[in-house]
Specification:
single chain, alpha/beta, Rossmann fold, two-stranded parallel ribbon, 11 helices, 8 strands, globular
Length: 264
């Protein structure tokens, strides 16, 4: 069987790392992970460190059959910008609060068509992506992945999503977690990084949306005890004052903890 090379956008987060695990177990596959640098992620260096840890863990797994290439790091400034793609994303964001990072990812996908993106089907942030895709024409199954429906796609949809492959868009985190446990890959997934605003000591904050999702999905084992405590404090304030006020209070408390770390 001919060897197939698969390009995948990989941040070291849960979704894209789950897909890396899936791919690693496949025969006759070469995996080229791609990471876009310089897009303002406060956790960038921590994500890169996590990638190295995950790659080492996968290399030690006897089930790893695929050839996994070193991560290809691409600086945002080196990606050519198509104004039509930017305009398409601006149009989408008039109705759906889709993250601004998807524009630059789509710009890269235009020069690397078919690249996989690890959007899953259950979490709030990716539900925005799912809704955006639906308005853009929806997806169809293509082999073992999903692509934008070429017959129903709008022009905006084609520009924004037409070059992506969505291999795990039909999976929720609970289903992925079950597979990880069944395969025995909890040790690999323990290295992932998902926190958007890490503490100075390199630990998860427990209060950003990504940390909240893990806690709400009963995946607290991925966060240290102090991050779990901060999450529970935030939930307590939610019940007392509502989300907006609670977020403000917890943001101030979080900043105080950061200042304490600076003084140590």
């Amino acid at each position: 069987m001919e060897n197939k090379t698969i390009y995948i956008l990989w941040t070291s987060g849960w979704d894209s790392t789950y897909r890396m695990v899936e791919l690693s177990r496949m025969e006759n596959v070469t995996v080229q992970p791609v990471y876009i640098t310089g897009i303002g992620r406060k956790s960038e260096q921590r994500e890169i460190r996590a990638q190295n840890e995950i790659l080492e863990a996968l290399s030690e797994k006897p089930e790893t059959k695929a050839t996994i290439l070193p991560v290809k790091y691409v600086n945002e400034k080196d990606i050519p910008i198509d104004d039509k793609i930017t305009k398409a994303y601006d149009e989408i964001r008039k109705t759906i609060a889709l993250g601004g990072q998807y524009n630059i990812l789509s710009q890269y996908a235009a020069i690397c068509p078919g690249i996989e993106i690890g959007s899953e089907g259950g979490e709030e942030g990716t539900m925005r992506m799912t809704e955006s895709i639906r308005l853009g024409g929806g997806l169809v199954k293509s082999g073992d992945t999903y692509i934008l429906d070429p017959e129903k796609a709008t022009e905006t949809g084609k520009l924004a999503f037409g070059n992506f492959s969505f291999p795990i868009i039909d999976k929720a985190e609970a289903a992925m977690l079950k597979n990880i446990k069944d395969w025995g890959y909890e040790d690999v997934m323990s290295h992932i990084w998902f926190c958007h605003t890490p503490m100075k000591n390199g630990r998860q904050c427990g209060v950003c949306r990504a940390c909240e999702v893990k806690m709400l999905n009963h995946m607290e084992w991925l966060l240290p005890k102090d991050a779990q405590r901060r999450f529970k404090v935030k939930r307590f304030f939610w019940k007392l004052f509502g989300i907006r006020i609670a977020n403000g209070i917890c943001r101030r408390l979080y900043q105080r903890e950061l200042l304490k770390e600076d003084k140590k």
